[in-house]
Amino acid sequence: MPLTIATWNVNGIRARQEQVQAFLEREQPDVLCLQELKAVPEQIPIGVTELEGYWSYWHGEKGYSGVALLIRQARFPGSAPVFVHPNFDFEHRIVMAELPMGSVVSVYVPNGGKDFDAKIRFLRSLVSLAAEYRAARRPLILCGDLNVAHRNIDVHAKELKPGAIGQRDDERALFDDLLSQDLADVQRGLHPDTPDIYTWWPPWRQMRQRNIGWRIDYLLASPMLADQAVTCVAHREVGTSDHGPVVATFNL
């Protein structure tokens, strides 16, 4: 039976509640990772926090950041998974759960606009986390908004700006370090030369409609999982967030 994992920066769960519910009903992902909730758990609508058939964990703070992890009970029967945070978590940016095929992570990397050093520290900690999994030979699936366009192919030509945050050499080098910890970029692995598979678009001048964007939302997976990927698609037409959901299927 195929395994479906989706990640989506919703840019405010209260504004996108109905869209998330519709997405879940249509796609029925086995795992859904959300970012930028922009709400504390008490503010999140009950319609998504108590979804029938899903275990969920909502980790947020008012007005900024926040991540969630939703896991389909029918696909992973038994007791509810344990949701945890690594010790470098701050501003409610990362939540993890251990599942039969490996650990799944929902993460939102700081964009670096206000505190670039904090972004670099966070990326380095993410690399260290992946290194721990590699050393322990434990499969890992890291999903979310990494706020780095890994290569120039991941940015529309009109948005290429050498030295811009999100395209800097030091950020991209840390992305390389992350992949070197036995992780593969699932979408790029399936579409190695496709230039227009963007996941975020500047919210002006109809950039989304014109598909002038950046690819900054990813599913990174250990090879034993990435090698089983069948599809990985960014859905530009879904929702009103400035990000589109990314959905991957695995032949597991």
Could you characterize the architecture of this molecule?
With 252 residues, this protein is an alpha+beta fold. The chain has a single domain, classed as Endonuclease/exonuclease/phosphatase (Deoxyribonuclease I, Chain A, 4-Layer Sandwich), CATH 3.60.10. 22% of the residues lie in helices and 27% in strands. The chain is built from six helices and twelve strands. It has helices spanning 17-27, 46-49, 116-136, 169-179, 186-190, 223-226; strands at 3-9, 31-35, 54-61, 64-72, 83-84, 94-99, 102-108, 140-145, 184-185, 217-221, 229-234, 246-250. A six-stranded mixed β-sheet has the order 3-4-2-1-12-11. A hairpin with a 2-residue loop joins strand 3 (54-61) and strand 4. The longest helix is centred in the middle third of the chain and has 21 residues, at 116-136. The model has no long low-confidence stretch (mean pLDDT 96).
